[in-house]
Amino acid sequence: MDQMAIEEQFEAWKSAVNSQLADLDANYQTWEAINNLNLNPERFNTAPYFWDSARRTYIERLILGLWSGVADGKKKSASLRKLLDFCTEHQIELFEFSNVRRRVIGRKQESDADEIRDLENLTRRNSLDAMGLEQLSVSLNAARKSLQGWRNKVLAHRELAYVIGSRSVSDDYPLTPGEIRKVIDESWDVLRTLDAAYSNVEFMTGVFSSIPSEIESLTQ
User: Fold this and answer.
1) In this structure, are residues 80 and 19 in contact, taking their beta carbons and an 8 Å threshold?
2) What is the DSSP string of the chain?
3) What sign results for the dihedral spanned by CA atoms 77, 78, 79, 85?
4) What angle do CA 33, 38, 40 make, to 5 degrees?
5) DSSP labels for 128-179?
């Protein structure tokens, strides 16, 4: 794979992960807003079966999405974890100083010497070597076992011991809302770091929406 093909694949892959992560972030906000209705029984009881079903549907979709979009390590996966493997394999083409300098500075005139120097300094500060990529991978490992357990035991598949037996997936694979939120936030951090190292640009991350107020308006 030549330089241009590597860059095109990285950009397309990163964009796909960004889109899925934005969707998952919105899912979390929706689940959280519905869950908060429990604090106001009068509103929750306007349609208790609907709100309880919606809450379970969103959290299940969120866990499955975080596994496939962030944590899955299978060879053909398009996850963020595998994107980091791709970045490690092509660290020189993507993040080596001369290649980043070419993307960032391009055809700027020599008369822009001060701007070029500032951009070069920023490129060095944002540089990402193999060790830095490894540290990014480690940051995604915290909840990986729990996400995989929930997916394999009760969501994508239903294991008998957890359906009619005495085992509890919550006990064997603990996963709190705070840990799910942390996976989303750390995934945004990884994408932001990759983007800065690749092009010196930190894109806007997160989801800015009116989801809580929209959910609240449905109960009025």
Assistant:
1) no
2) --HHHHHHHHHHHHHHHHHHHHHHHHHHHHHHHHHHGGG-HHHHTTSHHHHHHHHHHHHHHHHHHHIIIII---TT--SHHHHHHHHHHTHHHHHSHHHHHHHHHTT--GGGHHHHHHHHHHHHHT---HHHHHHHHHHT-TTHHHHHHHIIIIISS--HHHHTSS--HHHHS---HHHHHHHHHHHHHHHHHHHHHHHS-----S----HHHHHHHHT-
3) positive
4) 100
5) --HHHHHHHHHHT-TTHHHHHHHIIIIISS--HHHHTSS--HHHHS---HHH
Query: How many Å apart are CA 160 and CA 115, to the nearest integer?
Result: 64
> Do 38 and 205 meet the contact criterion of CB atoms below 8 Å apart?
no
In this prediction, residues 1-24 reach a mean pLDDT of: 94
pTM, two decimals, is 0.86
| Inter-residue contact 162 to 154 (CB < 8 Å) | yes
Q: Whose CA is closest to 214, among 21, 20, 41, 36?
A: 36
Q: Is 108 within 8 Å of 42 (Cβ atoms)?
A: no
pLDDT digits 0-9 by tens, 42-85: 878 888 898 889 999 999 999 999 999 999 989 999 999 999 99
Please name which of 61, 13, 35, 28 lies closest in space to residue 184, comparing C-alpha atoms: 28
